Structure formats: structure tokens, C-alpha cells
Sequence to fold (136 residues):
Amino acid sequence: AYKEVKVEEEAVVSTQSTGFAKVIAANKDVEPELSCVNKNGKSNGLQVLEGGHLISCSLGLCRKLRQPTTPLTAPLIAHFKLFELVVGMNGRVWIHSDSVKHTLCISMYLGRCEYLPEEELMPLLKDIVKRVESSA
Fold:
């Protein structure tokens, strides 16, 4: 179910699409049922995600990234002006930014930041950005 789709229309979602949705029903014997609207019929950010890059990470990192006061995102917010992260509870993070280089930097940072102390996060990001910028 999609908010923007009229009742008589079918949503066009391919098997290759990345979506941020709620699982309505999951059973080993049938296909899972997903919904991109909440119980009030509003999308609240649930949608098919266009563009961007999907990475796999640990469930622990996903839990940390979903916390409102996580220190892991502070260096990203300070360094990159335009980016989006959609964090699922299935070990997947969707990254979208204004350039491929920034997406690569964010992806590399998320792959290495999970167990670092807070004071080492910004130096890690600066090192990654420096290496990515110098390789081009």
C-alpha cells in the first residue's frame, strides 16, 4: 500500500527496488506482505527509495544509528551538508548524498565506526575523506 497511489492503480515496484516499509505479515510458507503506510494511512517516510547505495552492517550498528542521541552521526552531520541515511532493523543502511564520493566516504565510515571511542570518530572520517579525495 502506497500513499501516492490511487485505489485503482497498482504500485510499480520491481524485485530490484529498495524500500523502507513495515512488514505486515511474514511466514515461511507465503510471500511477506509489506506496507508503506501506517495505520492512519500516512507514509511517515515509508517509501520506495530511489538512487542511493545500500550497505550491510551489524544489527548492533543499526540499533546505535537509530538512537536519537548517537555520537556516530555527529561527524557526518558536521562534515557533509546534504545526505540521508535510512536505517533498517535488518542490518541494512541506505545512503544517499549529493555526490558519489560523499556516499563512498559515508559508507566507509559506517563500516569502521561501530567500536571506536567518540573522540576517534572525527579523525577517522577526515582520514577517509582525505584518502577518497586523493584517489580521484
